[in-house]
Amino acid sequence: MNSEELAEAIVTRAVEYEDISFAEINRLWPETRGDHWLYFPEDRPNTIVWTDCSLLLDEALSRILGKRLWFHTVPSMVYLIDGAVPHLPEARRWVKPDFKKAHWLPVVLKPKRP
């Protein structure tokens, strides 16, 4: 699967179920697992949205984030239910300028509304 096919698959699943978590993405497409971290926004290196990403997932997200899907913050319970939680403290307020240490911001990908 290439990044374009993965991007389409993620969008299709997010539209069908109204959102998709990174834990679901890793479970559905094992090739999305890797040793890269996703930061949000990119200028806040200690605000992490996921820690188990491959370059393939990074490329797929660059095709769809902000265009077809967007981040939506969720309670960490969503990830507990999905069975995967990064070993980082939770960012309870993501609007904070930056954390001194890495914090996890629980988000899902939601379809962009027309």
Kindly report the spatial arrangement of strands forming the biggest sheet.
1-6-4
Topology as a string of helices (H) and strands (E): HEHEEHEHEE
Number of helices: 4
For the residues shown, what is the average pLDDT? 90
Extract low-pLDDT stretches: none
Total E-strand runs: 6
Q: Which class do the helix and strand fractions yield? A: alpha+beta
Amino-to-carboxy terminus distance: 28 Å
Largest sheet: 3 strands, antiparallel
Strand % is: 15-25%
Task: Output the radius of gyration.
Answer: 13 Å
Shape: globular
Helix content bin: 25-40%
Number of domains: 1
Explain what this protein looks like in three dimensions:
With 114 residues, the protein is of the alpha+beta class. It has one domain (3-111). The protein is built from 4 helices and 6 strands; from the N terminus they run H-E-H-E-E-H-E-H-E-E. The strands form 2 sheets. It has a 3-stranded antiparallel β-sheet with strand order 1-6-4. Strands 2-3-5 form a 3-stranded mixed β-sheet. Strand 2 and strand 3 form a beta hairpin. Helix 1 packs across helix 3. The longest helix is centred in the first third of the chain and has 15 residues, at 3-17. The model has no long low-confidence stretch (mean pLDDT 90).
